[in-house]
Design goal:
The complex is a heterodimer of chains A (420) and B (376).
Chain A lengths: L23 E3 L3 H17 L5 H14 L1 E3 L2 E5 L3 H27 L3 H29 L1 E3 L2 E5 L3 H17 L5 H14 L1 E3 L2 E5 L3 H29 L2 H8 L5 H5 L1 H36 L1 E3 L2 E5 L3 H37 L4 H41 L1 E4 L17 H8 L6
Antiparallel strand pairs in A: 1-2, 2-3, 3-4, 4-5, 5-6, 6-7, 7-8, 8-9, 9-10
Chain B lengths: L11 E7 L7 E7 L3 E5 L5 E6 L3 E4 L6 E5 L7 E4 L2 H10 L8 H36 L5 H20 L16 H18 L6 E5 L6 E4 L3 E5 H6 L3 H16 L2 H19 L6 H34 L6 H12 L13 H11 L11 H8 L5
Parallel strand pairs in B: 8-10
Antiparallel strand pairs in B: 1-2, 1-7, 2-3, 3-4, 5-6, 6-7, 9-10
Classes of the chains: A alpha+beta (420), B alpha+beta (376).
Chain lengths: 420, 376
């Protein structure tokens, strides 16, 4: 089935490689990525964020070009210039919209208008998510053929907003079905050249895998919330606000606060512990549902691997925090000595600028550590745990599709709904 | 190029080629001609011929050189995994950037430009936004300012009023406050008719302990009870109110809103979109807005002095009450001060105040009534 090979070639062609060779690998060196992130963090700070288009492009190039499937890596052809242009267009669209929203709040019936504005922003956000996905796909090249995406972003945004609304109303129970539906919509309209994609994950399967987690995280929280509401004698509270003394004991508010605090602590704890498990379930389910023609994927990502990724993050963050505390402490002492001779305004300017700088440096440091451990770690784990079936089908795909405009990316950036 | 001094006599080698129309992998042999590289398939047939000056380097994993042809509508890709061959192509082709030297130079340019852009946006925020707001303010119709004022008023009242019980927020409504109310209205009438503004002033005394007064867009002036208590003469109270009328006349509230919107655009949308950026945005906006505000106060003082002279009051009374109020409060950080230093303000008022005849604004009985406009 492979192309006939010239006898002058001494190496064995890849198609004849021994069985069980890894179909997918991540070949990037960690050091390169860390350098990229460190430089990016410094430049983000100096340019007050303008550098983000270049950093995003660099990160994508690194991730794509080091992801190898069937002995061939992907290629990201998007440019920072495109992202910048898309962002500027998005600003040009959003600024008049915001002005209209502002003027509407002055009109009678302001509650209705602000609700409408929120709805429009939500739709626009989902619209941007879909258009941005289209941009990223059409900038993804594999074996000289690009991916592309069809389908109406408007329809997607309506579906997405409705599903998210339902998810919130059902306290998350609708989440698996919404995700399955939205992913099916996305993949049905996704193509690799002439090869059409689809999504085979089922909402019920995700529901079955996740319901225990949901019960562990949400149910005690609900019980706590309900208990704290029941513990309050509302009549006592009502009379207390009317000015009667010693109402804290009589109203049972003290007990309610305890219940509320307990349920809040439980929610936080369970989120921290359960989130990696949830993420592992989601990623396995999502990746294993992806199909392109006859090409199928399954993901053997283990939950322990996801925990390991987060443990690494926590370790790095602790180390960084310690270093930052020592460094900022010493810097603070030095600055206090230096500014002692300055007049109060200069002193204020120097301390404000340095304080802000330190804060931003620490925040950017955490962000870089997150990207360098969690983001890349999960990406690597997923890729390394992939099983690709029928990979031969990837070898005879015809090119199709055009490069799409970056406006969606710009909107997503301006509305802060960006993905990778 | 590289440390291992490549053998540049290499005239060809193996590579992988994708022609851009299908994903079929071609194991090819490359020949390096003087002007172009020729790509031959295993059978010896020519698949493509790319001139060196049209080659472009594409992103690839580390040892691999991935090439495309610039301006080619098809996404044909040539992948050279043999480092010697890659070095030879790099040597022959000017645009090929295997060591990323060109990329680094371009990136330095980008960095310099974005630093310049950041600096220029900061200059716009410091110098451009206030001027722009000043230029735009006259174009906003008074009807819109009133409406805006009503919206701001609802918020400001909610913030000022807080949780209170018993007496009303506004003074002058109770039975025993009536006389004070009449005196206050008399004072306001003199000020308003001298100011003769295109929008109706609405002033009232409210129960707040601070020695202060505020003006909202649309000509809404709140005089705090603490200020009435601090004033030792009608001229002192009138001086502060005249200063506030100056804000209304200059439409400072409206201008502040326009400035705020401009700063939000600059710092919320164009700049500051990064982790930790929120604090930078907040600090920059606060410091810049208090800076604008200091100029605005100086102008309102000048207006107040002018107005006091016009109604025959003592223009220096404003300076006197400012000095007394400032003496009783602690100075905060200078960077965050939204008013100029009191010493400078008083000196400026003294300079501007003309020595004209002074007529009493209220009779002694009226002044005493006004002092107890908030009966409790």
């Amino acid at each position: 089935m492979s192309v006939a090979v010239d006898s002058a070639q001494p190496t064995t062609p890849q198609s004849a490689a021994p069985a069980r060779a890894k179909m997918a690998r991540f070949v990037g060196r960690a050091k390169v990525f860390w350098l990229l992130l460190a430089r990016g963090a410094v430049l983000l700070m100096l340019t007050l964020g303008l550098y983000r288009f270049w950093l995003t492009t660099d990160i994508r190039r690194y991730l794509w070009s080091n992801t190898e499937i069937a002995d061939e890596t992907f290629e990201y052809t998007g440019t920072a210039r495109e992202l910048l242009l898309g962002f500027l267009i998005a600003i040009a669209v959003l600024v008049p919209l915001y002005v209209v929203f502002f003027l509407l709040t002055l009109a009678p019936g302001e509650g209705m208008w602000s609700l409408l504005s929120i709805a429009i922003i939500a739709f626009l956000g989902q619209y941007a998510v879909y258009r941005a996905r289209r941009y990223r796909l059409t900038r993804t090249i594999y074996r000289g053929v690009r991916f592309h995406q069809t389908g109406s972003a408007l329809r997607y945004s309506v579906c997405a907003v409705l599903w998210w609304g339902l998810t919130v109303l059902t306290l998350g129970l609708a989440y698996p079905f919404g995700q399955a539906q939205l992913e099916r919509f996305k993949m049905r309209h996704t193509f690799f050249g002439s090869l059409s994609g689809r999504f085979e994950g089922s909402g019920w399967r995700l529901f079955a895998r996740g319901i225990l987690l949901w019960a562990l995280a949400i149910v005690p929280f609900l019980i706590g919330a309900v208990a704290s509401i029941l513990a309050i004698d509302w009549n006592a509270v009502a009379s207390a606000t009317a000015g009667e003394a010693s109402w804290l004991e009589s109203s049972g508010l003290g007990g309610a606060v305890v219940f509320a605090a307990l349920s809040g602590v439980w929610l936080l704890l369970s989120l921290a512990l359960l989130y990696p498990i949830f993420q592992a379930i989601m990623l396995r389910w999502w990746v294993s549902g992806l199909r392109f023609g006859e090409v199928g994927v399954s993901c053997r990502l283990r939950t322990g691997e996801v925990f390991a990724v987060y443990a690494r993050f926590v370790g790095y963050v602790s180390l960084f925090s310690l270093l930052a505390t020592v460094f900022i402490g010493m810097g603070g002492v030095a600055v206090a000595k230096l500014t002692g001779s300055l007049d109060s305004l200069q002193d204020e300017i120097v301390t404000t600028v340095l304080g802000l700088g330190a804060y931003v440096a620490v925040a950017l440091g955490y962000s870089a550590i997150y990207q360098g451990t969690v983001k890349i770690g999960l990406w690597r784990c997923i890729i390394e745990s992939l099983d690709v079936s029928n990979v031969g089908a990837l070898e005879k795909v015809a090119a199709a599709g055009e490069a799409a405009s970056p406006i969606g990316e710009g909107l997503a950036d301006a509305l802060n709904v960006g993905g990778i | 190029m590289t440390a291992s001094a490549p053998d540049l006599s290499t005239s060809g080698g193996r590579a992988i080629f994708y022609d851009g129309s299908t994903t079929i992998r071609h194991d090819v042999f490359i020949e390096l001609d003087p002007l172009a590289l020729r790509i031959r398939d295993s059978g010896g047939g020519v698949l493509a011929e790319w001139p060196y000056d049209q080659l472009e380097t594409l992103s690839s994993p580390e040892p691999v050189l991935r090439l495309g042809r610039a301006g080619n509508p098809a996404l044909a890709r040539l992948e050279v995994r043999d480092t010697r061959l890659a070095a030879a192509i790099d040597e022959l082709s000017q645009p090929v950037d295997r060591t990323q030297r060109i990329e680094r130079r371009l990136r330095s340019k980008v960095i310099i430009w974005s630093l310049l852009a950041t600096a220029s946006l900061l200059v716009v925020a410091i110098a451009g936004v206030p001027r722009l707001a000043t230029a735009l303010t006259p174009f906003v119709p008074y009807a819109l300012e009133r409406r805006l004022g009503a919206a701001v008023d609802a918020q400001a009242r909610a913030g000022l009023e807080g949780r209170r019980s018993g007496s009303a927020f506004e003074c002058g409504h109770a039975e025993k406050e009536q006389a004070g109310r009449v005196a206050f209205d008399k004072l306001m009438r003199q000020i308003a008719s001298a100011a003769n503004l295109p929008l109706a002033l609405a002033a009232g005394v409210v129960r707040r302990p601070e020695s202060n007064a505020i003006t909202l867009p649309g000509g809404h002036i709140y005089v705090f009870q603490g200020l009435v208590d601090a004033a030792r003469s009608p001229d002192e109270l009138a001086g502060v109110i005249a200063h506030e009328v100056g804000h209304a006349a200059h439409r400072d509230g409206l201008r502040t809103i326009i400035q705020g919107a401009g700063l939000s655009l600059l710092f919320g949308m164009l700049l500051g979109d990064f982790v930790g950026g929120g604090a930078v945005i907040f600090a920059a906006k606060t410091i810049l807005q208090t800076r604008y505000s200091r100029d605005v106060e100086t102008n309102a003082d000048a207006y107040g002095v002018m107005l006091m002279s016009r109604i025959g009051g003592d223009p220096r009374a404003l300076g006197a009450i400012l000095t007394r109020i400032a003496g009783s409060t602690h100075p905060g950080p200078k960077l965050l001060a939204d008013h100029p230093e009191t010493r400078d303000r008083v000196a400026a008022i003294e300079r501007m105040a003309a020595r004209g005849p002074i007529t009493p604004l209220l009779e002694q009985k009226e002044w005493l009534a006004l002092k107890s406009i908030c009966s409790d």
